[in-house]
Amino acid sequence: MTNNINGIHHITAIAGDAQRNFDFYTRVLGLRMVKRTVNFDDPGTYHFYYGNETGTPGTILTFFPWEGAAKGRAGTGMATEIGYSVAKDSLEFWAERFRRLNVRHGEIAERMGESYLPFEDPDGLRIELIASKYPDDRKPWATDEVAAEVATKGFHSVTLTLRDVRPTAAILTDVFDYQLEGQEGDRYRYRTDAIPTASIVDLVAAPNMARGLSGGGTNHHVAFRVANEEVQMAFREKILSKGLHITPKINRDYFFSLYFREPGGVLFELATDNPGFTVDEPLDQLGTHLKLPVQYEPMRASIEQSLPILH
């Protein structure tokens, strides 16, 4: 596991109203907010991290909730679906819960030998609960309304929609060491055996679909997991050797990051496991305080005044 791409680290999306986003993910989906901070490039905007108890890589969904953000459009050159792993007998619980709470959702269906339930968050972000055919012993975060036996365990997969899947597939196989596991229609499933969970990337070929438009309800980037900075920098050299531009290492406080845009247009990140979310908050208090990057700490009063109040 040490020298590999270890599946998905986190996925980052764009939302509108911060309170609505918080309510949906913590109360409806039953995730834990593991970090409440601000956008490194826009400290007047929150950056929310949701995951399991500790914010284990492979469970972390993050949001930039830009108040009043224009609605985006899912399309090519974008991650278009997020898949969460759930227990095989939990989909009916979720379908009933979504009906009761007026969450927009589809019907339980089958794909790639797995049952799944598609739904949308309040901004229109497309998510699926997938009864994974792969073993998944991750311990979920449970709430009073979402018990452990039905709770999401973390990511199952992410779907990228592309005009041409071949250049992106080459990055997955030649650089990230994923393998083509199967095909169903225009969907191609790539999976790494470096880790048993959060290990799948589906590529959907849509040569005639319009390009995606960034905005509320769309994904911003997909981060892949590496064990540490040494492994991360080795992958940086591999990506440079493919003629792609990649950023220098950036300290994101809870992990170190590199960013590059893969040939199909999706923004990829390589993120480290270290140092993790308990670096500035104890485990039992994760997500309960507004944590600021050190460069913004002198501006705390003005930043707190500019951010929406979160109840």
Give the tags.
single chain; 311 residues; alpha+beta; 2,3-Dihydroxybiphenyl 1,2-Dioxygenase, domain 1; 8-stranded mixed beta sheet; globular
Task: Give a verbal description of the structure.
The chain is α+β, with helices and mostly antiparallel strands and 311 residues long. It has a single domain, classed as 2,3-Dihydroxybiphenyl 1,2-Dioxygenase, domain 1. Helix content is 17%, strand content 35%. It has five helices and 16 strands. It has helices at 18-28, 91-100, 165-175, 229-241, 300-306; strands spanning 8-15, 32-39, 42-51, 60-65, 78-86, 109-111, 114-120, 126-131, 155-162, 179-184, 187-191, 200-205, 219-226, 250-251, 255-261, 267-275. Strands 2-3-4-1-13-16-15-14 form an eight-stranded mixed sheet. The chain has an eight-stranded mixed sheet with strand order 6-7-8-5-9-12-11-10, with helices on one face. The N and C termini lie far apart (40 Å).
Short description:
The chain is an alpha+beta fold. Helix content is 17%, strand content 35%. It has helices at 18-28, 91-100, 165-175, 229-241, 300-306, and strands at residues 8-15, 32-39, 42-51, 60-65, 78-86, 109-111, 114-120, 126-131, 155-162, 179-184, 187-191, 200-205, 219-226, 250-251, 255-261, 267-275.
Structural class: alpha+beta
Biggest sheet, in brief? 8 strands, mixed
SSE series: EHEEEEHEEEEHEEEEHEEEH
Helix content: 10-25%
CATH evolutionary superfamily: 2,3-Dihydroxybiphenyl 1,2-Dioxygenase, domain 1
Mean pLDDT: 97
Count of separate DSSP helical elements: 5
The main sheet orders its strands as 2-3-4-1-13-16-15-14
Cα gyration radius (Å): 18 Å
Q: Architecture, according to CATH? A: Roll
Strand content bin: 25-35%
Tally of DSSP β-strands: 16
Number of domains: 1
